[in-house]
Structure formats: C-alpha cells, structure tokens
Amino acid sequence: MPDQNEIESKANKIMVSVTVLRVDGGSTLVEFVQDGEAFRKMVPSNKLTPDNEIDDKSLARGVSYGIAWAEELDKLSLPQIVTSTEVEKALHNAGIWDQDDVWTNPNAVVGALQSLYAVDLGVIAQIAGKG
Questions:
Q1: What residues contact 105, with CB distance under 8 A and at least 6 apart?
Q2: CB 47 within 8 A of CB 15
Q3: Based on the number of CB atoms within 10 Å of its own CB, is 75 exposed (0-12), middle (13-18) or buried (19 or more)?
Q4: Less packed terminus of the chain by CB within 10 Å, N or C?
Q5: What is the mean pLDDT of the chain?
Q6: Do the Cβ atoms of 116 and 93 come closer than 8 Å?
Q7: For the chain, what is the radius of gyration of the CA atoms?
Q8: What is d(CA 15, CA 52) in angstroms, rounded to the nearest whole number?
Q9: Nearest Cα to 45, choosing from 65, 62, 67?
C-alpha cells in the first residue's frame, strides 16, 4: 500500500499529452506542442501512460530530437529580418525535424521559410547535410 508521500507525489504530477512517433527498444520518440511550438524528444517508454501522457519532469529530462535549426542558422550570415528561433519554430511546426524530413517534404520547408522570409531550400539542405 502506498504511503501518504507517494500518493501526494503522484497527485502533484503535471501530465502532458504526446503523440508517439516511434518506439525503439526502451525509448520512445514523442512529439508535443508547448506554447504554440512543436517539440520532439526521446523519452523512456516506461514513463508513458496507456493514454500517451508523460509527466512533465520526465518529459523535461528527455533528449531533444532533430537539428537545432536556430543554432545552425545563427552560424550563417543571413539577413536578420526574423530570428533563427522563429525559423526553427516554423520548421518544427511544419514537421521538419531532420534530414529525412527535409528531403521527403521539401515543399513544407519552402512553405515554412516563405512564410517568414526568403531563405531557400539550399541553405536548409546544407545544414541538414551536416548531420
């Protein structure tokens, strides 16, 4: 029988709904939206509930997935009409997370970038090819 501290600890957990994208052994790739921005993380499979929820602390400890577009774009000499963080947000919200996403859905890349400013697919493909 759980003690009072264990019961209170479970009651204080904040659960976050996630979409399961891939299960790889004991790890699961999940996607979630926070403050209007999409994120992906690898989390321990045993931390997910049957309803695809995970407590916020376990989610925070997950390993971020995908290319850090903002970090890579900051290394280039692009006009700062918008910030690299805004580009990263647009790419993630369009489902662009890694090299495979860039090559299988280039129209989503172009659409995301065109919605911000004129960075072409060549720049994004160059960054994705570094991985």
A1: 94, 95, 96
A2: no
A3: exposed
A4: N
A5: 85
A6: no
A7: 18
A8: 10
A9: 62
For the ranges 2-16, 28-42, 43-57, the lowest mean pLDDT is seen at 2-16
Phi, psi of 69 (to 5 degrees): -55, -45
Q: Is the dihedral of CA 70, 74, 76, 81 positive or negative?
A: positive
**pTM recorded for the entire structure:** 0.62
Which H helix or E strand runs over 71?
helix 69-74
- Listed by start position, the domains of the chain span 4-64, 69-128
Whether 105 shows a pLDDT value over 90: the answer reads yes
Q: How far apart are the first and last CA of the chain?
A: 49
Nearest one of 82, 83, 120, 97 to 38, comparing CA atoms: 97
Cα angle 111, 114, 118; round to 5:
140
pLDDT for position 65: 94
Answer for the pair 92, 33: CB distance below 8 angstroms, yes or no.
no
